[in-house]
Each structure stands twice: as C-alpha cells, then as structure tokens.
Amino acid sequence: MPPSAPLPVAVHAVTLADIAQTAIASAQTEGVREVEVRARVTGILQTVNYAEGAQVKAGDLLFRIDPAPYAAAHALALAQLAQETARAQQATDEAARQAELFRQKAASRKEADDAQALAAAAKGARDAAAAKASLAKLDLDYCEVRSPIAGVAGRRLRNEGALVNPTGPDGLLTTIVSADQVWARFGLAEDDFHRLFAGGAKAAQGAEVALLLPNGSVYPVRGKVDFASTQVDTRLGTVQFRALFPNADGALLAGQFVRARVTGGKAKDAALVPQLALVQAPSGRSVFVIGAGDRAEARPVVLGEAQGSDIVILAGLRPGDRVILNQLHKLRPGAPVVVAPAKK
C-alpha cells in the first residue's frame, strides 16, 4: 500500500512566558457605607423632605416628626429647671448667711450644717432638672431626622401620617448609601484561589480586580482586593473576597450583580495557545504537535484559564513546538503532516 500523502495543517509556534493568571466569578456590589436612618422618638411622621434616589449631604433634613408634644415637654422641663435654679440660689444664700452667723456665734453649728446640706440638695435638684431639660431638648431635636452621612437616599419606608416608634419595626425610615466608593463581594473556587494566590490570603491583598458589567462592558476603573478570607466556605467550596472600587460618577449601583475578573500571580514558563487546538484524550486534554519526521505527536497538557479564544497551557509544551490547529478529526499519532502555506 503506498504511503498516505502528508496532511496539510496550520500550526501555532509555541513561545513560553510568564503569564498573569486570572479567574472570573459572579459578584455583587454594595455601598462601603450604608446607614439605616431610624426614628429616635415616637410620633406621627409630619413631612418627608427628600426625593428618593437623590444625593443628600450630611445633616440634610429627611423627615420631620410632629414636634408639638416634645416642644411642650421641653418647655415644662425648662420651667422646672428655672424653679430648681431659684431654690438652689435661695438655699446657697441661706447657707452663706448661716455660716456667717455661726462665725459670729449667733447660730449653732447644726444650723449652719443643715443649711449647707439643704444648699447641696437644692443644687443636686437643679442639676437633675438641667439634665431633664437637656433630654427634652434632645427629644425635640430628634423630631428632625437628618442624614448622618453624604450619599444617595433610598426609598422611603414610611409616609406622612404614619406612627413611627424607635423600638419597633416601623422605626426604619430609609437608608443612605455612600456612592463615592463601592465594594464588590465574590467567592473564588478553591482551585482558582490556589492557582492565583500560592501564598494564600496574604498574597491576595491588593490584587487587581476588573468588573464586567451586565451589558458586557468593562468598568473603566480597576479595583483592589482589600479582604480575602483565610477560610474556605464549606457550603460553597469558595474563598470569599471583597474588592474596593472608586465610584465618583455613581456608575456602580449598590446591590448590582456583576462579574469580577481577578488577576493573580504569574504562571511561569506558560504558553498561550488557541483553544481550537485542544483535543480530548482518554488520559485528559492534549494537543497535537509536529514531532520528529514531520509526524503528528499527541502531547498531554496541563490547562490554565481561558483568555478570550486562547487557553493558557501551564505544562506540556516546549519553546518552538508547533501546535497543530486544524484537521484534528483526521489526525492520528504518527500521521505524516506538512505545514500548509499561510493564506495571503
């Protein structure tokens, strides 16, 4: 039987390099500062003073609770403070008078000591009244619910006329999310974690993260890992990560589902080969290379991650190897091949 003609094939010449490794995981964004705005006094919600989704500054008025009962309580506390202040002054003056009489031997020591004790008690009552007045003023101030931070105001959870109570579930009025920075939380599969970060969680600190948005675009600003867990979540088999992203223009929304592409350590002496060169062998994935005598040779390989239409080969190839890219369904180990001229 005459020998079969060599099969014309296209090839990819292998070069080895240190290639940065990446992995992609599902992620969700959240505000770096997300503050619950709650009622701190009981009362009827009188006004809502902000627009949902609007940018607010720290100290901006968001809600007003009916202040009338608290204004009355504050006025009563001030009146009681005035009474106790007058009594304290009177007792202090009397104590001074009794002390002078005692020095002149016109009053007994007991009378002088009693006057001093009454003055001290009156001062204590005055101070207690002052504390009650301060608490009453605090409650009155709490009728104006103001934003504790600058950020984006969330949906109102209570409307005008609602009874709010700080100790009940109806005390939560809205949330404020600081939009200048956001976190992206995600989990890396254990295998990907060890592939990217051989040094463990410490090596992951500061790793670069890119966000792939739902519309397919890439968020233009890169983030950095600021937390990597030292434990594997046994329920999911993942290591939890958190990356911090600047968000000055507010393009990222808290609670958004995105994908995070994490860049880890470099794979030493790795090759980048088109994925179409891969074939499935009984022992695992392999590629065909042109071996001795211009014959096809199956070469088992260790795969890294895909990068677009290419795949990282961590082991199994040498510099200068010519990886066969087509005719794979016709190839058999030892089959003669010839490099087809490149199409012009």
Q: Give the CATH architecture of the largest domain.
A: Beta Barrel
Proportion of beta-strand residues: 35-45%
- Mean of all residue-level pLDDT scores: 91
User: Which percent bin holds the helix content?
Assistant: 10-25%
Number of strands: 23
CATH fold naming of the largest domain:
Elongation Factor Tu (Ef-tu), domain 3
CATH class of the largest domain equals Mainly Beta
The secondary-structure class comes to alpha+beta
Strand order within the widest beta sheet: 3-12-15-14-13-16
Low-confidence stretches: none
Q: What is the CA-atom radius of gyration, in angstroms?
A: 38 Å
Query: What is the rounded distance between the termini?
Result: 36 Å
CATH superfamily of the largest domain: Efflux pump adaptor protein, beta barrel domain
Please indicate the count of domains: 4
- The helix/strand order is EEEEEEEHHEEEEEHHEEEEEEEEEEE
What does this 3D model show about the protein?
The chain is α+β, with helices and mostly antiparallel strands and 344 residues long. It is built from four helices and 23 strands. The strands form six sheets. Strands 3-12-15-14-13-16 form a six-stranded antiparallel barrel. The chain has a four-stranded antiparallel sheet with strand order 4-11-9-6, with no helix packed on it. The protein is elongated, with a radius of gyration of 38 Å.
Q: Keywords for this structure?
A:
single chain; 344 residues; alpha+beta; conserved putative lor/sdh protein from methanococcus maripaludis s2 fold; Elongation Factor Tu (Ef-tu), domain 3; OB fold (Dihydrolipoamide Acetyltransferase, E2P); 4 domains; six-stranded antiparallel beta barrel; four-stranded antiparallel β-sheet; 4 helices; elongated
